[in-house]
Amino acid sequence: MAAAAGARTRGLLWAAVVAHVVASGAGFVKDLDESFKENRKDDIWLVDFYAPWCGHCKKLEPVWNEVGIEMRNMGSPVKVGKMDATSFSSIASEFGVRGYPTIKLLKGDLAYNYRGPRTKDDIVEFANRVAGPLIRPLPSQHMFEHVQKRHRVLFVYVGGESPLKEKYIEVASELIVYTYFFSASEDVVPEYVTLPELPAVMVFKDGTYFVYDEYEDGDLSSWINRERFQGYLNVDGFTLYELGDTGKLVAIAVIDDKNSSVEHTRLKSIIQEVARDYRDHFHRDFQFGHMDGNDYINSLLMDDLTIPTIVVLNTSNQQYFLPDRHIESTEDMVQFINNILDGTAEGLKIARSEE
Ligand SMILES: *[C@@H]1O[C@H](CO)[C@@H](O)[C@H](O)[C@H]1NC(C)=O
Ligand SMILES: *[C@@H]1O[C@H](CO)[C@@H](O)[C@H](O)[C@H]1NC(C)=O
Q: Measuring from atom 4 of ligand 1, which residue has the nearest CA?
């Protein structure tokens, strides 16, 4: 009798454990220790390196459990784990962990850092992208169109084997953290595309396409890094941080998106027009967009900008520029940009607080 009761109790306990695991998703996230270094070799791992005391890590935990569930449900080959980087600090430092939480995808000898927003969808998308093939072939026109609809910025290599393709693969192995890389043969490329020569690397975005030109555009890696954003963006703090890698100047209309008064909508359309109509002049040096609200920009610049306004940030030297008069038209904006480029607009230094 006693044995039966014991078994029943254990059964109930087990059910409770299972229910807990399913509810929290913790069961799909493996707790990693020293043995990870040896055992990880044959698998692709997505790992959250955390510290028990860190607030951002605690906030990530439920998201991470959802990531574990989702990867499992998708049948993804990527295993999801977490490691207390303070308990296993030597392993963590071997993986280059310096802050918490650090999210990495580990694939053979390669380690990819995740720096995007810490949401389930963004993290899952990153893991699938980086774990998947470096170059994804587009075997048919149908497939090409399908992928074109799903990606606002689409890089495609067109042609057979070549030194350019080798270069493309090399760049992809680094920049896959940011974007997808595709390849296609000439006959599946949309008919409106004219390629001056083959092989070619092109990007489809902003309703058109651009072809990489080694002589004009410099090395492939920096071209892709510059072209991986749409010409005009809805800029938030994270985008601004990402844009820092491009070294570009970022021209932003800071507006209240919900305010339909003409002052707000006009600045937005001025920037949109400059981005579109003056692309050839400015796209190498400038990124364009708008930002909703002035809270973020004011805390970044430690300034007190009132909206609507325009601000141009130099992401490579922490300077910013404000127009010295109202921008009323596209011509005013172009004038302002030219003044920045020829050095007649006065740059302000971002007052940095000690971090
Ligand atoms: C909309 O913007 C205008 C001009 O900046 C401002 O005067 C007005 O108060 C704003 N309206 C609302 C509802 O915030
Ligand atoms: C932006 O900063 C870089 C790095 O200091 C500098 O070389 C460049 O001239 C700046 N651009 C403008 C327009 O001020």
A: 263
Tell me, yes or no, if 271 is annotated catalytic: no
* pLDDT tens sequence across 128-174: 999 999 999 999 999 999 999 999 999 999 999 999 999 999 999 99
- Total Cβ atoms within 10 A of residue 61: 17
Beta bridge partners of 261: none
- The single residue listed with the structure tokens 């990124």 is 287
Mark whether 57 is an active-site residue. yes
Neighbours of 339 (CB within 10 A): 15
Question: How far is Cα 142 from Cα 186, in angstroms, rounded to an integer?
Answer: 14
Query: Which residue's structure tokens are 């932003």?
Result: 252
> If we measure between CA atoms, which residue out of 179, 186, 182, 153 comes closest to residue 168?
182
The reported pTM is 0.81
Domains of the chain: 21-131 (3.40.30.10), 136-226 (3.40.30.10), 230-349 (3.40.30.10)
Question: Which bound ligand lies closest to the C-alpha atom of 254?
Answer: 1
